[in-house]
Write a structure and sequence with these properties.
Elements (H helix, E strand, L loop, with lengths): L1 E14 L3 E8 L3 E7 L18 E7 L6 E10 L2 H5 L1 H17 L7 H15 L4 H16 L17 E5 L4 E4 L10 E2 L2 H9 L15 H18 L5 H11 L3
Parallel strand pairs: 3-5
Antiparallel strand pairs: 1-2, 1-4, 2-3, 4-5, 6-7, 6-8
Family: Belongs to the RecO family.
Function: Involved in DNA repair and RecF pathway recombination.
Protein name: DNA repair protein RecO
């Protein structure tokens, strides 16, 4: 069956001497694998459109249970800047890797597609990359069924006096319940406000937010620890981000 869809390239790898296989995320079909014959060749008409992060119109032939075969494609947004800037590339790669590894074949939604599209654009526009990543991580937690409790104490349900975040217990803790997790992460009002906001916020409405360094450090610890405990995937792109942070690159 010939399919005509918009899509974002999540992953692109060489196959054979001249071909590429791309992992394409689409609003209608979810995630699909597509073979682009000859795309590895410099003069190929498919060389540019099969690059990582490319958003475009794709026409491919696909039978049930088989990989698609690319017929034609047109670029809507090339996202050159995401591939040329080291920091942008690392953070955009993390969004793409999460989408690619956490979605099964032909799994996804129009909403998630729009969130990814907006996230890549937000990074390219110079918005705070860490906040973009955390917002998208929260969308991934929701997709996986592990959305943390952030609007009340996960233990007693109290909405006041929230002072910490417990990744192992699955959400925020009030001061009276903090003893239940001795390694719970202390959070201030700024981090708590954002943790409450992320599950409800649409990436398409993200503005040029200004977040204090202390708040961002708390958010980073909360989100990364929660991801490691509940999702348990070793992310290549996040490891690279952490190496850049470690060596202040």
């Amino acid at each position: 069956m010939l399919r005509s869809v918009q899509g974002i390239v999540l992953r692109s790898m060489d196959y054979g001497e001249g071909n590429k296989i791309i992992s394409l995320f689409t609003p209608e079909l979810g995630k699909v694998g597509v073979m682009a014959r000859g795309a590895k060749k410099v003069k190929s008409r498919h060389a540019a459109v099969t690059q990582l992060f490319t958003y475009g119109d794709f026409v491919f032939f696909k039978q049930r249970g088989q990989m698609g075969s690319l017929n034609s494609a047109e670029i809507i947004e090339a996202h050159h800047a995401l591939r040329e800037d080291l920091h942008m590339s690392a953070h955009a790669s993390y969004l793409a890797e999460m989408t690619d590894r956490m979605l099964g074949d032909e799994e996804g939604s129009t909403y998630l597609f729009e969130q990814l599209k907006a996230g890549l654009m937000a990074i390219e526009e110079g918005k705070d990359m860490q906040i973009v990543v955390h917002l998208y991580e929260m969308k991934m937690f929701e997709l996986a069924g592990y959305l943390p409790v952030t609007d009340a104490c996960v233990s007693c349900g109290e909405t006041l006096g929230i002072t910490s975040f417990s990744p192992s217990m699955g959400g925020t803790l009030c001061n009276r319940c903090r003893y239940k997790d001795p390694v719970a992460i202390g959070i201030g009002e700024g981090a708590l406000k954002l943790l409450k906001l992320f599950p409800r916020m649409d990436m398409r409405r993200l503005g040029a937010v200004q977040v204090k360094d202390e708040t961002k450090a708390q958010l980073k610890t909360c989100m990364r620890t929660y991801m490691d405990i509940h999702i348990g995937v070793k992310w290549k792109s996040r490891d690279f981000i952490e190496q850049m942070e470690k060596y202040n690159i």
